[in-house]
Amino acid sequence: MTDDARAAEGAAARPASEIDRRSFVGACVAAAAPLLLTAAHQGAAPDTAKAGAEGGAAAADTAAQAAVAGAPRYDPRQHYYGMGVDVDKCIGCGRCAVACKEENNVPRDPHHFRTWVERYILHDDADATVDSPNGGIDGFPAAVDEKGVLRSFFVPKLCNHCANPPCVQVCPVGATFSTEDGVVLVDESYCIGCRYCIQACPYGARFLHPVSKTAQKCTFCYHRVVQGLVPACVEVCPTSARIFGEVHRPSSPLTRFRRFNAIQVLKPALNTEPKVFYANLDGQVR
């Protein structure tokens, strides 16, 4: 996703009272313009992994608005998003981390991730070993000594998009904010790189971009969500270990996931009210 698309994503989600840069619809269609133009010219479904990744903002606004004439307006008040993760289904392939980096232009180094996969190895002495080499992108090496190992499993991690997010509370300039549809975003045009939100996040889900010097994190691929698409990590998961949907809508895949599984969240004692819900989560996971 280009800088123009990321800026549009932040502007699109911000309440109207907080922005004067562009209207909500204008920002959304700016991010979606390449997707719409490709569909219009080719008459086929576009490559959704590259939605919003091409074109200038000025030309995109005009072309995209013409392409979506008569399309229903996205109303964030009609949605409230969350994600489910079935730990038993995760095979540690790392495709989610790869797709996230490609979709959101995350640095290709082993230190910056919006989502990553951790491996837990439980031992018979009740101890647990946790590793995540390159976020799980390159796979996991075999355990050196399997003696005393009870079992191992993989746990995808990402921003939990808390309903009571500490990162929003500590941001001194309002760059980190919660949208009406339940997504926590960062407006890079406001961020001053103070790192307060990075320190406040109890899940280690934020980082300072080495080039822009602004805070970054998982956005649920918000530029895709407002187009009716699922996040890139959900789309590429080969085992459907990740489920994205509406928290309160009865027909949502996420609602069914929560109904038919014993659900846990990470660090519930902190009262952050995470909206990433885990099924079959071991008590050793933090």
Mean pLDDT: 82
> Gyration radius, to the nearest Å?
19 Å
Give the biggest beta sheet.
4 strands, mixed
Proportion of residues in extended strands: 15-25%
The computed structural class is alpha+beta
Q: Approximately how much helix is present in the residues?
A: 25-40%
Unreliable segments of 5+ consecutive residues: 16-26, 32-69
Distance between the termini: 31 Å
Overall strand count = 11
Oligomeric state of shown chains: single chain
Q: SSE order in H/E notation? A: HHHEHEEEHEEHEEHHEHEE
3D shape:
globular
Distinct helical segment count: 9
**Strand arrangement across the biggest beta sheet:** 9-1-11-10
In short:
Helix content is 27%, strand content 17%. By secondary structure, the chain is α+β, with helices and mostly antiparallel strands. The longest helix has 19 residues, at 24-42.
Which descriptors apply to this entry?
286 residues; alpha+beta; 4-stranded mixed beta sheet; 3-stranded antiparallel beta sheet; 9 helices
